[in-house]
Write a structure and sequence with these properties.
Length: 122
């Protein structure tokens, strides 16, 4: 599949849960996660995000996150990968789920993004 999804959360269980939810409707969409810190604490880590990018089999990635510092780490990680990564300032669960479900049925990326606009966090 050309597009994949990356989930970044401050809490490992949130990232894992969103991935599990997505797998119910989009089994063919590659989903990778970067949740929490390596020692189990709450937070995000740029290296874990880069690893999620590299572990994802897709060449183009849609990245979703939970809180502001995750966005900062995502932005830095995007600078360090050769993959095309689009970052969305949208409600994490709803937008990642919507995007993956639409990608599963081969919806054009422009139409996926049109659906995500209504989920933008203001």
């Amino acid at each position: 599949m050309e597009y994949g999804v990356v989930i970044v959360s401050h809490v490992s269980e949130i990232a894992q849960g969103v991935k599990r939810l997505i797998e119910q409707v989009a089994k063919d969409v590659p989903v990778t996660i970067a949740g929490g810190l390596e020692n189990g604490d709450v937070g995000t880590d740029m290296q874990r995000i880069i690893q999620a990018f590299e572990d994802n089999s897709a060449t183009k990635l849609l990245a979703f996150y939970d809180l502001g510092s995750a966005k900062m780490n995502l932005e830095m990680a995007i600078e360090m990968t050769d993959k095309e990564v689009k970052l969305y300032d949208t409600a994490l669960v709803e937008s990642a789920y919507t995007a993956a479900a639409l990608l599963q049925v081969e919806t054009k990326i422009e139409d996926v993004e049109a659906q995500l606009k209504d989920l933008k966090v203001k």
